[in-house]
Design a protein that fits this description.
150 residues, mainly alpha, 7 helices
Length: 150
């Protein structure tokens, strides 16, 4: 059991390092805009959370090496992880309404109908296996209608 627990702690430590570094870079707004993430306000809170995650990562990595700490640290890190998940779900569902960008909306609408449904039912393909101009207009008008319904 302990070797498997040590592997899980190492993987968890790597994930905590990745997210800790991401939160440490909270003041870098262009990074958050490029990744399409919600900016943490104030930035100092995000940096504090990043330092806490890096501390947990160090603890998990150290516990994966030191056998005496493995079980206690695994319990602690596990509880911190599920409590963070519950907090994140509450924040996403209750306090913030998720919104899609324009490209995300188009992708979501496109994904609701598979390409085979689109080609068989609504749009006909030309012999060159491209949509010709009239079908592109049909597609745009159909997507506009779907946006109005939503």
């Amino acid at each position: 059991m302990k070797p498997l627990l040590r592997v899980v702690l190492v993987i968890d430590a790597l994930l905590l390092v990745a997210f800790g570094l991401l939160f440490l870079l909270t003041p870098w707004t262009s990074l958050y805009n490029a990744l399409q993430l919600t900016q943490v306000e104030p930035a100092l809170a995000g940096q504090g959370f990043g330092i806490a995650l890096l501390g947990l990562a160090w603890l998990a990595l150290h516990a994966s090496i030191d056998g005496a700490m493995t079980r206690a640290v695994a319990r602690t890190v596990g509880h911190v992880n599920w409590l963070t998940g519950v907090l994140m779900l509450v924040w996403l569902i209750a306090l913030r309404s998720p919104s899609l960008s324009a490209s995300g909306t188009n992708f979501a609408l496109w994904y609701t109908r598979s390409p085979t449904q689109l080609t068989k039912k609504r749009w006909k393909k030309s012999s060159e296996k491209r949509f010709d101009c009239s079908t592109k207009r049909e597609m745009v008008s159909y997507l506009d209608q779907l946006l109005k319904v939503c």
